[in-house]
Amino acid sequence: MPQLRSVVLGVGAYLPQKTLTNDELAKLVDTSDAWIVQRTGIKERHIAAEGETTSMLGEMAARDALANAGIAADDIDLIVVATSTPDWTFPSTATQIQAALGITHGVAFDLQAVCSGFVFAVATAEKFLRSGSHKRALVIGAETFSRIIDWTDRTTCVLFGDGAGAMVLEAQPSQGGADERGVLTTHLRSDGRHRAKLHVDGGPSATQTVGHLRMEGKEVFRFAVGQVTDVVKDAFAATGLTPEDLDWFVPHQANRRIIDMSAQKLGIAPEKTIATVHLHGNTSAASVPLALAVASADGRIKRGDLVMLEAVGGGFTWGSALIRW
Ligand code: UT7
């Protein structure tokens, strides 16, 4: 039966100019390039310049994705921005990006699921497009985690970076087959009991401050490898596809060891896994679209490929999106 499906028209990314290497970090806290590379795979991260905000990074990534898609900003009628580091408490970062792109029609809003944010945003935009209410969506993950990092805490400050990634989705008719282009299925989960393991110790209502990121790294690691594979299995079960059918696995870029162990647990071959964490560290909601933009630009991800997105973040939240590119 004819239906609508959300087809990827293009992806884009933006990283701030300034980089911070592991050796530079070793001058700030008691750490070393060897420890960071061995435990996380991260080699450097990008840091937003003074006055450079999340919406500015998001706008740059959005422009890159629009150019990649070959469409104009005016063609967009839905903007969903995943971020945990908005410019302001309100209005939303999405409306700031909408204005910066000169779009005065349609709707723009933020969504907050920390590192799972981009997958949650794809799932949300996809449902709008599939319902027929909107035609073309900009889905953006944009973060300036450098602003909520405690730069004296070596257990967290070496892990995170700033950046943004974006995807353009368009509602297109489909017969519903798994071989046809578009988002095939999405699966989201959350469990709020885990707040203490990964949180920010400030906020407008609780403390009237912005706060700093706090993490029990080992606990998060255990959860990320142990639990989140269920949403990937759900995506395979919903479509009848298998890890062998997959062309690319694009997980949240937090830690190379988590990426490799998750792929192994799921029976996904290492050569099908996209890892860009060495280039930008953990950029939270920006990490999956940053990885997609790299692998699309270098020719790895091609039209017709089967691509599995997966992410886990504070809350805990976790999710998957299976896409025929
Ligand atoms: O997006 C989701 C959010 N976060 C994540 O996905 C992160 C999940 N967790 C992780 O990636 C890992 O747990 C970390 C990379 C954070 C830590 O790796 P680990 O192998 O779990 O190390 P650990 O916490 O067990 O620490 C081992 C040692 C400790 O010293 P002792 O107690 O053995 O003497 C730490 O104090 O490493 C020490 N350590 C460091 N040493 C040098 C912790 N951070 C550092 C550091 N440099 N930056």
Q: What is the CATH class of the largest domain?
A: Alpha Beta
Overall 3D form: globular
Q: Segments where pLDDT lies below 50 for 5+ residues?
A: none
What is the CATH topology classification name of the largest domain? Peroxisomal Thiolase, Chain A, domain 1
Order of neighbouring strands in the sheet with most strands: 1-7-6-4-5
Superfamily (CATH H level) name of the largest domain:
Thiolase/Chalcone synthase
Enzyme class: transferase
Family: Belongs to the thiolase-like superfamily. FabH family.
Pfam families: ACP_syn_III, ACP_syn_III_C
EC number: 2.3.1.180
Write the layout of secondary structure elements.
Elements: E1 3-14, E2 19-21, H1 22-25, H2 33-40, E3 44-46, H3 54-69, E4 78-82, H4 93-100, E5 107-111, H5 117-131, E6 136-144, H6 154-157, E7 162-174, E8 182-190, E9 198-200, E10 213-215, H7 217-226, H8 229-239, E11 248-251, H9 256-266, H10 277-280, H11 287-297, E12 306-313, E13 317-324
Parallel strand pairs: 4-5, 4-6, 11-12
Antiparallel strand pairs: 1-7, 2-3, 6-7, 8-13, 9-10, 12-13
The structure holds oxa(dethia)-CoA.
